[in-house]
Amino acid sequence: MPFTASTRDMMQTLGVLDAKTLHRRREDYNDKSVHPDSQFFKVGVHYLRKSPTSKQLVWDPETTVRAWIEATKAQPQPVAEVPQ
What is the reported pTM? Predict the structure, then answer.
């Protein structure tokens, strides 16, 4: 797994305008207003810290894009039958 992309690189790749959009999806993001089900980026799978003391992240572009596409797919909704 090559962790080569910066947060800015991932924002450009995914078409995201605000870094918080990515960070809120991290499993280690501490904000009670973010539901845990929406946190699908995993440490060691999608991103790592640049160093143990750094706040900067390095992302794996391939796994991150796959997770993003899977998580943002439109969920099929049941279609109600219309009485005739």
Answer: 0.79
